[in-house]
Amino acid sequence: MTLIVHHLHVSMSERIPWLCEELGVPYELKVYDRDRLMAPAEFKALHHSGTAPVIQDGDLTLAESGACVEYISHKHAQGKLFVPSSFPEYATFLFWWHWSNATLQSALGGALGAYAIGLREGDPRGGICFRPL
Q: What is the pLDDT of residue 131?
């Protein structure tokens, strides 16, 4: 059965088709445009979280880009993208695997959003938007 990738424009879902292409995983891409700034109802109906991306693999429906990347990687990459838990630096691997999505992305998103509305570092209205990493 072909993997279905539900892609919402301006979201974290670009990485899923990219990963599938790199691994040679056949997939069907369904693209959704945002309804103003939000996901359309058709997309939100795919998964209770309403977040992008969403993949469907047979009876499985999975959301969240990190979860989708891990699922596809473990199922299709034949161990090329992960190290075994017995690897001496396994915890360090996990830290960096999740760091970009959990820490860097949120910090950059906040800073870019604040910058887009005219706030600069040192402006008290920026709150935590310009916090050091």
A: 63
Contact residues for 18 (Cβ-Cβ < 8 A; gap 6+): none
DSSP for 28-82 reads: EEEEE--BTTB--HHHHTTSTT--S-EEEETTEEEESHHHHHHHHHHHHSTTSS-
- Give the C-alpha separation, 1 to 13, whole Å: 21
Instruction: Please give the angle made by the CA atoms of 68, 132 and 101, to the nearest 5 degrees.
Output: 0
What pLDDT, on the 0 to 100 scale, is given for residue 133? 55
- Give the residues of the chain that fall short of pLDDT 50: none
* Paired residues of 63 in beta bridges: 54
Query: Architecture of 3-76 per CATH?
Result: 3-Layer(aba) Sandwich (3.40)
Beta bridge partners of 3: 27
